[in-house]
Amino acid sequence: MKDELIASVSGLRGIAGGSLTTMVAVRYVAALESLLPPGPIVIGRDGRESGPEYCSAIKEFLTSRGRDVLDAGIASTPTLGILVQSRAAAGGIQISASHNSAKYNGLKCFRWDGRILPAEDGLRVVEAFRLGTPMVQSDRQGNVTCVDGTAEHLRRVLAIVDGEAIRQRHIGVFLDSGHGAGSRLGQELLNALGCRVSMAGDEPDGRYEHEPEPTAENLVCMLPQIERSASEVGFFQDPDADRLAIASAEGRYLGEESTFALAVEHRLSKSSGTIVTNCSTSRMSALIAERYGATCHMSAVGEANVVDMMLSTGAVLGGEGNGGVIDPRVGLVRDSFVAMAVVLDQMVARNQSIESLSQLLPHLEMRKLKIELDPSKLSAVLEALRMRYPNATESRLDGLRLEWSHQWLLVRGSNTEPVVRMIAEGADSNGVDELITEATAVVQVCANSGESVQKDPQTSP
Q: Rg of the chain over CA atoms, in angstroms?
């Protein structure tokens, strides 16, 4: 990927020392700070080697503006959200490039209630950043106070599971925190639940042993360690610990899509309520909700959109297919610690292995693909696909989602790259392969010539 600075409603990201200099980061923080209400601002970071430099520059700027800073040091993204909310701060800044490789860093911004900024607020920050915000010093010099949100975060997570029952089982857990911000709290949580813990990536120093996104491809070297350590389940966090991937005792990667589905099964088996997921997430969660007579609402892609819908519907759980689980009893941020705790709770309550629990989930096949596409041609692509499949149920919530009784297709442009992303899912692998192959052909026709594909009234995958 080229060294492009990406400023979006989700925050800021670039190559540390390249497109993302400390001055650029401070300019972005200046835009955010100008839009926040009065009060202290919480700052945290993941374990990346470039983090301290950004942290120092941001603290210096904020205190020059008269803001008090609550410095959380190395802290997970969900912990930072809890600190913002519990300390009645005006907002928060997490210095992290999330699942991206070591050369990147970035900023995630929080609102006063401990959630990631809503899309409209994020857009205001981006606009202020691009226009430039005056960085005038205040007559008052702010103070810096070191804070630790680990204990409060741990207390909240333990409160939603049967800790005593889990402790009696002494479950063997392999945890790879990926040299990220989740290692300390991850160990404390598992120890508090009486687990036999085998660790990898426990030093939060950003010296990644594998690419940090917890995908099957990136974890090839890690999966065999689950069986070698005689563990019953493997947990894999991304660097800021808001996502969790899971693997079985035999080292079989269950996929990030399964993380939220398992959490939905756990939550709805204990209490009724509404759940929220986004339009790119597997239908497993919706089918589980249907089984329990619960409503599953669908939002546009992005954590902020999921949280918006959770708040508007009073949902008991929200999440995404990237391994993100949001339980409002703990916080309004994707939380890998919540995911770990509820999986262990479910293993104990049902006296089943994680492999057996995964087999109880609806069996669906999913394919994901991205194709280079000039953004100016996206509208033509979506219209061509809509005409190609006139019998599908159509949604324009985010890009174009076409749905049939047995499968669905989502096509949407990327906010950060000149590509179109496609996801197809269904019960039959051959049908899903055929659907995504046909959709790819439509995209390529539009990409190469701008021509649209004519409607075929007989087409109904």
A: 22
241: tokens are 């610990």
Residue range 153-359 in CATH 3.40.120.10 = yes
Pairing of strands 244-248, 233-237: antiparallel
**Both structure tokens of 422:** 């496609």
219-233 pLDDT, tens digit per residue, is 999 999 999 999 999
Provide the Cα torsion 220, 224, 226, 230; round to 10°. Answer: 180
Give the distance, in angstroms, between the CA of residue 225 and the centroid of all CA atoms in the same chain. Answer: 25
To the nearest 5 percent, what fractions of the chain are helix, strand and coil? 35, 20, 40
Quick: pLDDT tens for 165-221.
999 999 999 999 999 999 999 999 999 999 999 999 999 999 999 999 999 999 999
Do the Cβ atoms of 133 and 27 come closer than 8 Å? yes
| Count of beta carbons in the 10 Å neighbourhood of residue 5 | 15
In this structure, what token pair is assigned to residue 127? 């606009």
Residue 30 corresponds to which tokens in the numbers above?
């200046």
Cβ(163)–Cβ(193) below 8 Å: yes
Facing residues of 425 across strands? 366, 408
User: Among the CATH numbers 3.40.1690.10, 3.90.1580.10, 3.40.50.300, 3.40.120.10, which is that of 6-148?
Assistant: 3.40.120.10
| Crossing angle between the packed helical segments 150-158 and 77-86, to the nearest 10 degrees | 100
Burial of 350 by CB count in 10 Å (0-12 exposed, 13-18 middle, 19+ buried)?
middle
Q: Where are the domains of the chain?
A: 6-148, 153-359, 365-449
**How many angstroms separate the CA atoms of 93 and 3, rounded?**
23
Phi first, then psi: give them for residue 39, nearest 5 degrees.
Answer: 135, 175
Looking at domain 365-449, does it have CATH number 3.30.310.50? yes
